[in-house]
Amino acid sequence: MAHPIHDRRYRQLAALLMETRKQRGLLQQDLAERLGRPQSFVSKYESGARRIDVIELLDILRALEADPHEFIDRIRNLPLAALPR
């Protein structure tokens, strides 16, 4: 079994967060400043080197001015083939 950090869903979560950041026209540094964190924090979760917990996810979505309900719906609507068996 693959280590949980390598689970496809984490990669998809990171990709959706990166996509949302880029849609907002923000650099990693911009988002990091909004979060009061180093740029490496954003880089690590976007690259999959670090997982984020639910509190961090909510903080990130707030900094991105993204609706958490809509974001979670996007994840829930991913094709079943994208989910591990």
UniProtKB/TrEMBL annotation:
InterPro entries: Cro/C1-type_HTH (IPR001387), Lambda_DNA-bd_dom_sf (IPR010982). CDD domains: HTH_XRE. One of its GO terms (molecular function) is DNA binding. It holds the Pfam family HTH_3. Gene3D superfamilies: lambda repressor-like DNA-binding domains. It comes from the Bacteria. Residues 21-71 form the HTH cro/C1-type domain. This is XRE family transcriptional regulator. The lineage of its organism: Bacteria, Pseudomonadati, Pseudomonadota, Betaproteobacteria, Burkholderiales.
